[in-house]
User: Fold these one by one.
Assistant:
Number 1:
Amino acid sequence: MTILDKIIEKKKEELAYYEAEYATDHIKPLPFNIQKSRQMNVIAEIKRASPSKGLINPDMDPVTQAKLYEDNGASAISVLTDESFFQGSFDDLKAVAEAVSIPVLCKDFMIDKKQIDRAANAGASIILLIVAALSDELLHELNQHAKKLNLSVLTEVHNEEELQRALAAKADIIGVNNRDLKTFEVDLKVSAELGKVITAQGLPFVSESGIFTAADAETAAKTGASAVLVGESLMKAQNTGELLRSLQVPLSSDSYAR
Ligand SMILES: O=P(O)(O)OC[C@@H](O)[C@@H](O)c1c[nH]c2ccccc12
């Protein structure tokens, strides 16, 4: 059983206790666009802990961290909401969404519409759908549900087969996870490989995981990515603002003009 299987199994258990919660008119998702910028968009992540790295920065205050990200040019903020494996929460998401005026991504393992409503109610503008964790049917259903609520969807893939499924589901923003959620192995070459196929379709993509330096952001830019999703390095940096600014490397015109 892989870690992804374990996380999904636990999610199913937890969902039994979720109270029905419907997203209504009060939600005001912000548009999320990574195609206009001439600089690498950085989606900066709030992540206390993870199954692959253990404790990353357990004492961090999510609101302080989120404001630091916003002040230093982040395009969006990702907040882990999974409690059991990442020590995150929907309270973190809500507090962050209230404190900043850029889009917030609810980073969780979505397998049910109820989770999307909860994310929307907590102030998320973007949700993540992980292709490896979903059937084609669920991928379609959750995607439709998010769109109905005007949320943006980041559809995450790790290999060619998942990418084809994402494209068939009409994903419009693809996240290429450089980390294999089954083995934790990280390799930026995954973005290089899948980036060719995605950019050929004229779609934007986010290179996710394993970005530590400006040189990594440049490598990601060369693969055609117009955004990077960065957690650990920003959470552990001595000077988070400086690192975040350094990751906003120039993009070549074909990355932003598509
Ligand atoms: O901490 P990193 O290596 O910078 O990675 C951030 C982000 O990509 C990672 O947290 C992530 C990408 N996809 C996910 C899916 C679930 C949980 C976590 C993730």
Number 2:
Amino acid sequence: MYQPPTAHVIDPSTGHLSAATGRYEKRLSDLAGLYADTGAFETLTAENPDRIVYVVHEVRPQQETGDLIFGTTWMEPGRVGQEFFMTRGHIHATGNRPETYYGESGEGVMLLESPEGETRALEIRPRVMVYVPPMWIHRSVNTGPEPLVMSFCYPSDSGQDYGIIERSGGMAKRIVAGPEGWEAIGNAAYRPRTRAEIDAVLATAA
Ligand SMILES: O=P(O)(O)OC[C@H]1O[C@](O)(CO)[C@@H](O)[C@@H]1O
Ligand SMILES: [Fe+2]
């Protein structure tokens, strides 16, 4: 009747998670429309559409509400034009579900955005725990020269809503190479959410 307790070994350099129940990859060809420099994206994709940008290993429990999903995200270093490799990004479909990310190896930025469009960019590296509070859109960015590996944990009834980023033309900020390593610049294609859109996001809280 009870699920058995389990222990899992994380390899900080590869993101391998022992006894994971699932694994998926995102390749360049899965990430069309994310990057500002469409020419650079097409060139990279033509070279190798199957190039892996990130890999997720996860453990999903059998039961839903009240349980947790946890795992690792391994992200390749790289850029599309000036913009660093990043995850697709999402808000949780049940918007008030939070998440934690812990740096295992490499360095990067957790880019966060509220429904109203307020932005935060938090650096993550080994031994840094980043807390993504309820209602924040989140995307991981590898700003370093090595793979970025993080472990994550979030409630199992969270879900992911990717449309929130698509509908606004991306996130308000883009993380690009700058003189100091990385910098956040405005996304020219960004369309702020209307009051009705914000209210619809807030209404997903449960
Ligand atoms: O779902 P995305 O935006 O492609 O990013 C993947 C990351 O987000 C998660 O879905 C967790 O929120 C993890 O699987 C992984 O860390
Ligand atoms: Fe998430």
Number 3:
Amino acid sequence: MAVPVTILCGELGAGKTTLLSRLLETANSEIAVLVNDVGEVNVDADLVEARTDLETGDEVVALENGCICCSLGGELSRAVIRLWKEHEFDHLVVEASGVGEPEPIARQFVRGPAGGPYDLEAVVTVVDARRFHDRFADGDDVPVQQGADEEGTRPLSDLILEQVEFCDLLVVNKCDLVDDEERERVVALLETLQPRAEIVTSEYGDLEPETLLGSERFELETVRDSAGWKRQIEADAEVDEQDHDDRGEKHVHDHDGADEHGHGDADAHDHAHPPERYGIEVEGYHCRRPFHPERFAELLRSLPDGLVRAKGLTWIAGREKQAITTSTAGAETTLEVTGRWIASFSEERQETYRQGQPDLAWDDEHGDREIRLALIGRDVDWDALESRLDNCLLTDEEMDADWSDYENPAPTGMGETVTISSTDDPEGSSR
Ligand SMILES: Nc1nc2c(ncn2[C@@H]2O[C@H](COP(=O)(O)OP(=O)(O)OP(=O)(O)O)[C@@H](O)[C@H]2O)c(=O)[nH]1
């Protein structure tokens, strides 16, 4: 029988080790633990070991040389397979590095060699209620430490939201440090960011072992596709497919979902538009016309305060081949080349690719080039944001001009990223 696995994620200091120590103390089953820390010599492993080994004899294995999700894919698989061969236990918990992306770790257990002896049951993300509130859910402008991760490529806020979006259980920890309303605001925002995840609240990780260990089998595709931004994009795309009037003009769907075209899929509709609480809303923006690179960068430097998340594909003038993913988390936006527009290939290859993707929406003039963003925010003036986004689009005149001369901060190579930070000037020039 495959051993169930739980992956534990969450930003540095959110309370993963505290929760894990408690779990090891209270669970009746034999739990093996794999701990990974970036740049530190397994302080957590020592801690967990010190607190649990003598009492329970639980196994603790530590990975030393970096982050499991980047370089240690192979090492992770080897370590957990060795563990499985050499020891008997009922459950494996992997405590992931505080700055890692959870998906590559999960993949090791779903598609990698570790998928044989193990069965991934749950990805649990621990959220520091206080810090999450101040960073994303507060109406006031509280200064919070932002910045890129250790490699300088991804802002911390982006990784935190990715961990929230890629999990099936969210533990809102440190609830002693927020009041009831602040806690509710955090929960409402988390529900919007990942509508499918179960959400529990805790202080010092005081949860029943069953809450953490008793979940159903993890489904990678389902979890990945259920992030709030993704649902919004899919619901919008579905509407466009049904709507044959979508001829290159942009439209923003109303926040209550009552866009002028109507939704075809009630389920997608419900999930894409969760109940509005604390002014939290989800919007979509779609257009088959590129952004002017300088005007778009200017907008990203002066985003409205309440915008928590924006994510999706963008077409940026001067980058005719590059399909660029825009990912805004709080004040920081990462632009990353995540693929190539099919329309930039030769006719012959376009045919081949399009045959492989019969559902791909195609415009006679622009092919698959488009801007399709999901926007999540609280108390955002959506009309104002929409018109600011519209002002970033090329004008008719610019559409016919040469785009190669623009100052263009957008990345060019596959996988390349550029981060643009928003200042505290929401009224900043966006023209
Ligand atoms: N006030 C408060 N402090 C907490 C709570 N949970 C954990 N802490 C404290 O927060 C600090 C960080 O907790 P850890 O459990 O080490 O956090 P972590 O997520 O494992 O941190 P990294 O290993 O650095 O990623 C410790 O000092 C804990 O005692 C809580 O619910 N409330």
Number 4:
Amino acid sequence: MAATTGSEMKSGSFMSEKSAKIFVAGHRGLVGSAIVRKLQDQGFTNLVLRTHSELDLTSQSDVESFFATEKPVYVILAAAKVGGIHANNTYPADFISVNLQIQTNVIHSAYTHGVKKLLFLGSSCIYPKFAPQPIPESALLTGPLEPTNEWYAIAKIAGIKMCQAYRLQHQWDAISGMPTNLYGPNDNFHPENSHVLPALMRRFHEAKANNADEVVVWGSGSPLREFLHVDDLADACVFLMGRYSGFEHVNVGSGIEVTIKELAELVKEVVGFEGKLVWDCTKPDGTPRKLMDNSKLASLGWTPKISMKDGLSQTYEWYLENVVQKKQ
Ligand SMILES: NC(=O)C1=CN([C@@H]2O[C@H](COP(=O)(O)OP(=O)(O)OC[C@H]3O[C@@H](n4cnc5c(N)ncnc54)[C@H](OP(=O)(O)O)[C@@H]3O)[C@@H](O)[C@H]2O)C=CC1
Ligand SMILES: C[C@H]1O[C@H](OP(=O)(O)OP(=O)(O)OC[C@H]2O[C@@H](n3cnc4c(=O)[nH]c(N)nc43)[C@H](O)[C@@H]2O)[C@@H](O)[C@@H](O)C1=O
């Protein structure tokens, strides 16, 4: 069989089909909600959305009936079991099984029911723990994974491979984007299960409100992480839907890399906490560094716009208005 991988870049019709039915899976999450805002800003009028309780994407029969009935033309898959280092490390069975089920059901039913194009979202944790930095797309499957999130990473790698397999066998336009660590409105601010940025924002906020002297931060503070505002990611997703039809997944990063210690100092300043930091070295550091090589996406014509300073202030304002004030 000839390997039909699709053109690396073509100007698809997506951007001109403003009334085409688009299923954004996971539309109430950090990423899905940002994608909905971006699509609406760009004039897309026919979004089909389902909450988790309306459609459980782990149910193959429910997903199948949904696609048979709704017949979306485009799909953006931003529904997944997601969490930070502690959640990934504590619930490995959930992270591998739920993600494999959601993505397998959605990708297969989307193909079967004639969806024109699908975007699958993975994560920078798909790359080997000691990948070359910045990490090019070609580093996939070249070495062992970071143990704290290998179960989630294996599911995400399977998602990329499923898109590639359907492209090869059926010439179907399924693409994959690999975002770096994200933050922004509608993030998960759970004290243990969230990612580092929302976890610290909440912890500093609560410490300030309670006049605490210190805040505990996990690990050694030395790991490096790259952060991208979710509105930039959403912009990149719409860009990829309109402009990319290649076989290989595409990294989506910011190039903005800080140590966890620097991040803690930045969040502390934005929140206005004046006490000290205490490091809990019983907690895992995870991968030492995972900076994406963004040159592929940049060469297609996309670059991020939101600075970390603006992104952090905007996210803290959102947190105050939408989490803190709603609790009062
Ligand atoms: N956050 C980050 O830093 C990063 C995220 N990503 C990727 O982006 C995508 C979205 O992540 P993010 O927005 O952060 O995650 P969130 O947890 O914020 O949102 C996930 C969404 O998926 C929905 N969902 C989960 N399970 C099911 C299910 N069984 N049936 C239906 N819906 C379900 C959730 O609904 P409900 O809340 O009702 O359960 C929620 O709306 C994921 O693929 C993730 O891997 C990639 C890199 C970094
Ligand atoms: C996006 C990516 O996110 C996950 O990987 P991660 O980047 O390691 O995730 P994280 O944000 O939880 O931690 C980043 C760093 O920060 C430190 N850290 C300090 N203090 C807190 C803290 O309070 N909470 C958390 N969560 N981490 C803390 C923590 O010890 C670590 O060194 C994947 O599992 C997977 O979900 C994935 O793909």
